[in-house]
Amino acid sequence: MAEKGVGVTSLFAVFDSHDGITFAHEGLATPSGDVRLVPVVERLVRLRGQDGLAWAPGRQVAADGSAWAYDQRSVLERQVAEAAERGLTFKAGWELEFVLSSDDGPAPGGPAYSSTALLSVDEFTVTLLRDLEANGLGIGQFHAEYGQAQFELSLLPSDPVSAADDQLLARQTIHAAARAHGLRAGFAPLHTAEGVGNGWHLHVSALRDGVNILPGDGPHGLSEEGGAFLAGLLRDLPAITSVTAPSVPSSARLRPGYFSSAYAFWGVENREAPLRFVPATPLLGDGHANIELKPSDASANPYLALAVVIASGLAGLKDGLVPPAPIAEDPGTWSEERRAEHGVTRLPETPRAQLDALAAAEQVGAVLGPELLGAFRAVREADLAWAAERPFDAVVEAHRWKY
Ligand code: GLU
Ligand code: MG
Questions:
Q1: Ligand 1 pocket, mutate which of 201, 253, 278 (most atoms under 8 A from CB)
Q2: Ligand 1, closest atom to CA 189?
Q3: Which of 159, 219, 276, 337 is the most interior residue, by most CB within 10 Å?
Q4: What global pTM score does this model have?
Q5: Rounded to an integer, what distance in angstroms lies between the CA atom of residue 360 and that of residue 351?
Q6: How far is CA 30 from CA 10, 22, 68, 380, in A?
Q7: How far is CA 268 from CA 227, 247, 276, 289, 291, in A?
Q8: b/e map of 339-363 (b: 16 or more CB within 10 Å)?
């Protein structure tokens, strides 16, 4: 099995968010077909927290062992290989925000970011930290967030494919630790329609010969290449968001005033910016500089999310883009006129607007390849049709425990 995998339906790529299968994509339009799901044995982990069981990420290959165009992990591997040809590697890592809830609902909130809020989940925290370490996951920080019963775990950065693998293993580990304490972890972009959302912010830096290329003597602590990489992300941002925050509730999370980002711009340490540049500091050194993408959440496939981010940054480098001036304020508080003066537009506010943005940025869709892009679009359409028949509260509720 380690070598030849297990047989699975070729329809994995066209299951929608509600476990319905859409047959609207031409390449996967019938229930016939089988591919192999091959475990990546180098990443096999005996699970602490689920004793007697193990976990490994998988690779989908065609029945004859050849490449299968719908395999998401391969999409990221392709981007990493392309970047390597240009002498670039990356460090990436996610912050995972989630709500912890018992049968009685989420614990009453303590003050934001406080140790009092953490106290309510002490036993869970100890299990979680122990299990993460045993499962080989390094963490930067675990803390109470500012939403009700909301917590955040930041994973240590790693090479892109490992970072995406780690993100999936972290989900499993958190879910198991929560279960061990009679809790449930909700990763959905919106736990409730009005409350604070769960962002899974993605941090990325690019390196040449192991040296971070983002920091430099240019404006705002960016190097010329760092500026170009950032400008590439900004150019494609609406389309990137359609992949990094793709579920129906995802775009509703992106409201001004929630530190989740809502408008397309960048800023230096600006918590309202979808692209927050975290500069190097004398204290933390050059290696610390990175770009945080805020319109990113748990409903995204982590391999595809990182692949489009890397591709857009690389395109910015290739085109020698120069970013506009950063914005230090929250443009959500500005007038339409002022936003227009600064060229600040709203990120797609609906899944339909996201799909349009993806169609308009052909270079982003091309990262997925025509087959997977077709399947991705078909799934989004199926999700849209499903949601169109329901009140938004019901849509949010249906996603609450999905991820
Ligand atoms: N919960 C916020 C979001 O939806 C992020 C809060 C923060 O980490 O600054 O992205
Ligand atoms: Mg946070």
A1: 201
A2: 4
A3: 276
A4: 0.97
A5: 14
A6: 10, 10, 17, 18
A7: 12, 28, 6, 11, 9
A8: beebebeebbeebebbbebbeebee
- Alpha carbons 368 and 104: distance in angstroms, whole number: 42
Ligand 1 pocket list (CB less than 6 A): 97, 196-197, 199, 253, 258-260, 271, 294
Helix (H, G, I), strand (E, B) or coil at 46: strand
Task: Tell me the C-alpha distance between 17 and 256, whole Å.
Answer: 26
Please tell me what DSSP assigns to residue 67. B
CA 339 – ligand 2 centroid, Å: 26
Distance 106 CA to ligand 2 centre (A): 18
Domains of the chain (ranges; CATH) run 6-70 (no CATH), 74-399 (3.30.590.10)
Closest C-alpha among 343, 157, 92, 321 to residue 226: 321
Q: 99 alpha carbon to ligand 2 midpoint, in Å?
A: 12
Ligand 2 centroid–CA 121 distance in Å is 18
Rounded-to-integer distance, Cα 69 and Cα 46, Å: 30
Ligand nearest to the CA of 261: 1
Q: How large is the C-alpha radius of gyration of the chain?
A: 21
How many other CB atoms are there within 10 angstroms of residue 189's CB atom?
29
Best residue among 98, 113, 196 to mutate for probing ligand 1's pocket (most ligand atoms within 8 Å of CB) is 196
Contact 114, 144 (CB under 8 A): yes
Distance in angstroms between the alpha carbons of the first and the last residue of the chain: 27
Ligand 1 centroid–CA 160 distance in Å is 22
Kindly state the tokens that stand for 77.
Answer: 């591997």
Place of tokens 């925050």: 245
Instruction: Give the CA angle between residues 371, 301, 59 to the nearest 5°.
Output: 65
Residue with the smallest CA separation from ligand 1 atom 9 is 259
Mean pLDDT by 10 residues, the chain (403 residues): 96 96 97 98 96 97 96 98 98 98 85 92 97 98 95 98 98 98 98 96 98 96 98 98 98 96 98 98 95 98 98 98 98 98 96 97 98 98 97 98 96
Which residue's C-alpha comes closest to atom 6 of ligand 1? 259
Instruction: Give, for ligand 1, the residue of 294, 296, 330 to mutate: max count of ligand atoms closer than 8 Å to Cβ.
Output: 294
